[in-house]
Amino acid sequence: MRRVSAIGGAALLLLAVAACGGRDSGGGTTGTAATGQCQGQQTTGITDTSIKLGGIYPLSGPASAYGDIPKGIKAYFDYINAEKNGIGGRKVEFVVRDDGYQPPKAVEEARRLVEQEQVFALFQTLGTPSTAATWDYTNQRKVPQIFVATGASQWGTDAAHPWTIGWQPNYISEARVYAAYLKKEQPQAKVAVLYQNDDFGKDLLGGFKRAIEGTQVQVVAEQSYEVTDPSVDPQMRNLAESEADVFLNVTTPKFGSQALAADAKNTKWNPLHIVNNVAASITVLKPVGFENVQGVVSSTYYKDPNDPTWESDPEMVLYKEKMKQYAPGADVNVPYHTFGWAVASSFHKAMEAAPCPTREGLRDSVRNLKGVKVDMLLPGVTLDTAADDGFPIESMQLMEFKGERWELFGEVVDTRAEFGPLTG
């Protein structure tokens, strides 16, 4: 991890430069949309009546389950365009490209969106490998890469890429929540870990190991897999031999489902199964059979459309109504759709708070969020950032799978307050 302390000075200098007006390196002109202190800043992709955003997702390939996310995003934008006059009078156009979860393809699509589509910002590039492959390019071009769909800690601790920022809780904070749970409930736990062999998997595993330092909880077995692997069955057989009493499943949906199925088949190994948030969707568990995933533990930070707790919740009612209207055929109970709705709503609030309707204005806004409430997030979870804190969400709540849905338990854990700020 990199030192977070370096962010402060660089970010403050960036803010000062932006206030004085920057160079329009994106080819846009300021015109009537940006006057006064906004003069000279980039307005490519934004006019007085429109905003053009680009998203990059694995609509195909091993992580194609995430292709449901942009459906929720588009439904939200279609709703506010039709019924709320967009964002500040600007209708949102959301252009989605498929990278197949392949970093070289992500770079190609980022260039297409920036140079050909002339988008105002990249809103959501999904996956740690794809985002890591594109953020040098977006930062060199001074294009906002906003609320990337990956929890890698580098998006909030790297001072050299001020145009890129995450949204969801980072993987180290998530790991801290699981570590705290085990220290309390199974203080002598022996943990076996399956993880994706990239920055995503290593980030969460590394965070977990640091969080259990000085305790009796220990990692006794580790197995990695590649995203090109057809199956994780061999890794699961090896982990079962460890006889660990906790299994930490650090995977993306396809492999998360495989690991859950392998765990269910092995009647001789019955560990507490913890699955990371990004593979905890109902769409991952359902193919395994709900009877086979009882008692699985995970964490979350946004409302589950399957949870009757939110049945009368105004935002959930609105979400389900508008999904049926603007995304006919999409299953409103798929949490990835809810994720998309929540992150689109977060963009809406950040854009409204931007000091200038420019790329620089958006860049500065997302690093100056103070207790921003987003109605699809769990109560107690807000967006908070600062010049030296590039992590919008760092609060989560544990949940356990019971019957046919997840049930929240315990309290929302603010990892900033519980463990201190995330630093290098």
UniProtKB/TrEMBL annotation:
Keyword match Signal: yes
Cited InterPro entries: Leu-bd, Peripla_BP_I
Keywords associated with the record: Signal
Keyword Signal: yes
Signal sequence, start to end: 1-21
Family statement: Belongs to the leucine-binding protein family.
This protein's name: ABC transporter substrate-binding protein
Native source organism of the sequence: Nonomuraea salmonea
